[in-house]
Amino acid sequence: KQANPRSLIENARRGGYAVGAYNMHNEETTEALVWAAERSNSPIFLQVGRAIIPHMGVRRAFEMTKRIAEKSNADYVIHLDHGSWDEVLEAIKLGFSSVMYDGAHLPFEENIATTRKIVEIAHAFGIPVEAELGKIPDVGQSVNWEDYYTDVEEARRFVAETGIDYLAISVGIVHGVVPGIPLEPINIQRIKDIKAATGIPLVLHGASGLTQQEVDAARAAGVHKFNADTDLRHAFRAGFEAVWAKGDRQLEEAMAEGRTRMIDATIDKMKSYGCIGKS
Ligand code: G3H
Ligand code: 13P
Ligand code: ZN
Ligand code: NA
């Protein structure tokens, strides 16, 4: 059933674990996420994100996710990931129960002002808001990390002045994983400092490719929502390609194998975040 996003995160905070948030991409990948949650009794954030929106629009993605989730026994939240101003407003109208507004590309003062307006609107509908401070690069991009990291003093002001519910931070993580490209180790001390300055639950994006040691350290430092996409997409692809490699097959057979592998990969993430059996 639809869960209250604040309660999922608050329960995770109190229980010392984290909840996973995963992006849906089509019917089969949405089923994989929902069925993984159902099978392992794990709470789940189902995210409508950057890849799906240009492909089918916020409304169709939301309706597909809702239809599949409603048929299950899973405790789920439908969440807008990396939303623009217009997308957040559309999501609120459609009935999303949690939204992320991503103003990380804006100058700091503008990010504060815009995020604060989003929070006023969303909170009027009882919807919690995730926002991003610092910038999260894509894998393979070469960056000067100090320009990308979330600044601790800025985080303190940002949270105090916007009233957001959870903060997405940049601490060495990247969006994506490419075999052969080593990932930067994440900066756990920076997570602790941001947590101490803000006091609100933190969100770690780009969680694909993290080691279990990093996940555990991030969780202990105050991260209670991990966003993972690429590792699950790779699992789906591996299943699809395993069928395809046998010669010409029906798409359905390949998609079913992709879905099976993605369920297993999602349950692995849930184990890693410690949220199995928490719903
Ligand atoms: O394992 C410890 C908890 O995750 C601490 O989190 O600082 O949000 O209470 P908290
Ligand atoms: P990854 O693709 O690196 O797992 O990142 C997912 C994400 O942050 C979605 O917002
Ligand atoms: Zn992200
Ligand atoms: Na990543």
UniProtKB/TrEMBL annotation:
<dbReference type="InterPro" id="IPR050246">
    <property type="entry name" value="Class_II_FBP_aldolase"/>
</dbReference>
<comment type="pathway">
    <text>Carbohydrate biosynthesis; Calvin cycle.</text>
</comment>
<feature type="binding site">
    <location>
        <position position="132"/>
    </location>
    <ligand>
        <name>Zn(2+) 2</name>
    </ligand>
</feature>
<feature type="binding site">
    <location>
        <begin position="227"/>
        <end position="230"/>
    </location>
    <ligand>
        <name>dihydroxyacetone phosphate</name>
    </ligand>
</feature>
<feature type="binding site">
    <location>
        <position position="205"/>
    </location>
    <ligand>
        <name>Zn(2+) 1</name>
    </ligand>
</feature>
<keyword id="KW-0479">Metal-binding</keyword>
<protein>
    <submittedName>
        <fullName>Fructose-bisphosphate aldolase</fullName>
    </submittedName>
</protein>
<dbReference type="GO" id="GO:0016832">
    <property type="term" value="F:aldehyde-lyase activity"/>
</dbReference>
<dbReference type="InterPro" id="IPR013785">
    <property type="entry name" value="Aldolase_TIM"/>
</dbReference>
<feature type="binding site">
    <location>
        <position position="102"/>
    </location>
    <ligand>
        <name>Zn(2+) 2</name>
    </ligand>
</feature>
<feature type="binding site">
    <location>
        <position position="175"/>
    </location>
    <ligand>
        <name>Zn(2+) 1</name>
    </ligand>
</feature>
<keyword id="KW-0113">Calvin cycle</keyword>
<feature type="binding site">
    <location>
        <begin position="206"/>
        <end position="208"/>
    </location>
    <ligand>
        <name>dihydroxyacetone phosphate</name>
    </ligand>
</feature>
<feature type="active site" description="Proton donor">
    <location>
        <position position="81"/>
    </location>
</feature>
<dbReference type="Pfam" id="PF01116">
    <property type="entry name" value="F_bP_aldolase"/>
</dbReference>
<dbReference type="GO" id="GO:0008270">
    <property type="term" value="F:zinc ion binding"/>
</dbReference>
<dbReference type="InterPro" id="IPR000771">
    <property type="entry name" value="FBA_II"/>
</dbReference>
<keyword id="KW-0862">Zinc</keyword>
<feature type="binding site">
    <location>
        <position position="82"/>
    </location>
    <ligand>
        <name>Zn(2+) 1</name>
    </ligand>
</feature>
<feature type="binding site">
    <location>
        <position position="176"/>
    </location>
    <ligand>
        <name>dihydroxyacetone phosphate</name>
    </ligand>
</feature>
<dbReference type="GO" id="GO:0019253">
    <property type="term" value="P:reductive pentose-phosphate cycle"/>
</dbReference>
